[in-house]
Design brief:
The protein has a single domain, classed as TIM Barrel (Alpha-Beta Barrel). Helix content is 49%, strand content 11%. 52% of the residues are buried. Bound molecules: zinc ion (ZN). Zinc ion binds next to loops.
Length: 339
């Protein structure tokens, strides 16, 4: 098979079509201190300024060799600035002001108003800058909060956990708002040149939510979301998602990104060819702390286990060494030479 472009290979992999080799990239955040030093584009400014966001994101492709450009570096965008704190050079922005204290506050949520902060424009501007820099042959992946993470962001941890268990109607209402928010945001990004949108959905995982509730409340919401999407959608599930591997494969997402707590061989066995599987070289363990040889061994094991896109298990920790980022592509290249 002829050498494919990075973009064709990535899109074909997500669509479960034949490719010449497995792509090696990240669908989760790629901003590291090494790349910030090399580009001069530091957090927190790179979360809010399109030029800096583009420079830092492109560095993961140009300098670390990853076969996609992935941005932004946090999961609060496009929420307004008065809901978040900016974080610092190695801490991401996080939500500190949740707009819904009471159940009735959900009736007053205006999605358009949440988009009005200008942060959506920053991502769209960054997309244009990145596309101009890397050309048409490199895939662009944008992150966006999924429905459960939006719901969590609207009501805060206490209400989220309480209403999830005690009030099915209110919880359903929160998730419905999440669907509309995630859909409008991701479709806007897809219409503006992004090849795939990755939605981290940590707040729907078994670490926080009973698996039965995931199946009865969240999977139908995902089906609604994905059926109305204008392009490719990836779900990233943090933590130990072993209990929901099967329903995740039927949720309508084009691809599922999982952490190392889910064994790749098991995931492949359960999900089969229903969906593209992305992962799962340990970000917080191997990539951050261990040697390049350790990373290469773990990555080759993922490939042996049948992963469709080789990637870190979660966002790169900011202190991940540049050589360790590079080892992901090295591992993939060695794997094919040894075959
Ligand atoms: Zn994760």
């Amino acid at each position: 098979m002829n050498e494919m472009t990075l973009r064709d290979r990535f899109i074909s992999s997500i669509k479960r079509k034949k490719t010449d080799k497995v792509p090696a990239c990240s669908v989760t955040q790629t901003g590291t201190l090494d790349l910030m030093k090399l580009t001069g584009a530091y957090w927190p400014k790179a979360h809010f300024n399109a030029e800096d966001m583009a420079a830092l994101a492109v560095a993961a492709y140009e300098l670390a060799g990853l076969e996609a450009v992935r941005y932004p570096f946090d999961i609060t965008s496009p929420l307004p600035m008065d809901m978040i704190i900016e974080g610092n050079v190695e801490t991401q922005p996080s939500i500190v002001k949740f707009p819904c204290d009471e159940k009735s506050d959900l009736d007053n949520i205006d999605i358009e108003q949440l988009f009005d902060s200008g942060r959506m424009d920053t991502i769209i501007d960054a997309t244009q800058i990145i596309r101009d820099k890397v050309g048409d042959d490199v895939p662009l992946i944008a992150g966006a909060p999924g429905p459960a993470n939006v719901a969590y962001g609207l009501v805060g941890p206490n209400n989220y956990l309480t209403w999830m268990i005690t009030d099915e109607d209110t919880f359903g209402n929160m998730v419905d708002i999440g669907v509309e928010f995630s859909l409008e945001y991701s479709n806007t990004l897809l219409e503006n040149g992004v090849d795939a949108v990755c939605m981290p959905e940590s707040n729907a995982g078994p670490d926080l939510m009973p698996p039965q509730l995931f199946e009865s409340m969240i999977v139908p919401a995902y089906k609604e979301l994905t059926s109305r999407s204008k392009g490719l959608l990836i779900m990233h599930m943090c933590g130990d998602a072993v209990w929901i591997v099967d329903p995740m494969a039927d949720s309508g997402f084009d691809a599922i990104s999982i952490e190392e707590k889910v064994n790749m061989e098991y995931a492949k066995k359960v999900m089969g060819d229903r969906v593209c599987i992305i992962g799962n070289v340990s970000s917080a363990g191997t990539l951050l702390w261990k040697s390049e040889d350790d990373i290469i061994a773990e990555a080759k094991q993922c490939l042996d286990d049948g992963v469709d896109i080789l990637a870190p298990s979660c966002g790169f920790a900011p202190r991940t060494p540049l050589d360790n980022m590079k080892a992901l592509v090295t591992a993939r290249d060695e794997y094919y030479l040894e075959k």
